[in-house]
Amino acid sequence: KLFIALKSQVDFTAALTSPPPRTAFSNKVFWITGASSGIGRALALHLCSNHDNTNLILSSRREKALQEVASECEEKGSGAQIKILPLDLADIGALKSKAETAIALFDGRIDILVNNGGVSTRAMARDSTFEVHPFVMNVDFLSYVALTKALLPTWELQISANNKAGLKTRPIIINTSSFVGRLAAPVRTIYSGAKHAIMGWYDAFRLEQMIVGYPIDVLNVVLGSARTNVAKNGITESPDKKFGGKDDNIENGLEPAFVVERILASAYAGQDELWIAPRKELFLLYLNQYIPITAKKILGKAVAKQYAVQNEKTGEEKEL
């Protein structure tokens, strides 16, 4: 078992965690944000392929893309019931109303909220406008809090009903945080800040809910490089400027299918945190846990080299 854990691309606990049974999430209601692509899409497809009779609410800004994901899910034939609820995580003021709509879609229940939508950054703080900062904080952190707060009264009613019925099931929140939520990275300044905020807020929230007698399971996913469009869709100096380029770490990152399988295993096991990353990044997370100064120096040098190459390529493109 130790050998398996050492060879794995997840933390030791997750490496030894068994996959959930096919019926683990039967009749459960998932609400997945950022479901039109990347990890969100992979999670929806995995649930429809490997688990029976799940209920899915799929959300993102792109309604057409959500419909395509829903169609793919329905083709799996697992009995999943799928609803589409378009939303924009940047529109914080609209999220309470969206949550009320989501609750009504499956008879007043949300069992598992997957806070997955977000936006990355590819610019240094000195080069970024101030407007980037509230934009990223809204999308990557405050939207998560807004949805959680909007669902909390319903969840506490569900917990009370479960307790009266002698059931120990709890609502689950799965947050897609990041490697930079534990080890801040240059050129990801506000992204690092938002992901750190997720970790801090939800670790405190989990404890608070235990104190008041309405426990909610919260899984914070410390995700390293995975093969998604996170770099391509990342923003640079201002919210309207996209990076649009490639990131070798992302291109060579983890397969989303592997990521979501491990996420569900950890969530089903009631774990608080999951580290999942390519081995070099996983090593840095462990190093940061015990020798943080060294981990930060290594990361700084690695990003500096990557940033220099990125700028060199950008310069060549401008000359062309």
Automatic annotation (TrEMBL):
Gene3D superfamilies: NAD(P)-binding Rossmann-like Domain. It comes from the Eukaryota. Pfam families: adh_short. Belongs to the short-chain dehydrogenases/reductases (SDR) family. This is NAD(P)-binding protein.
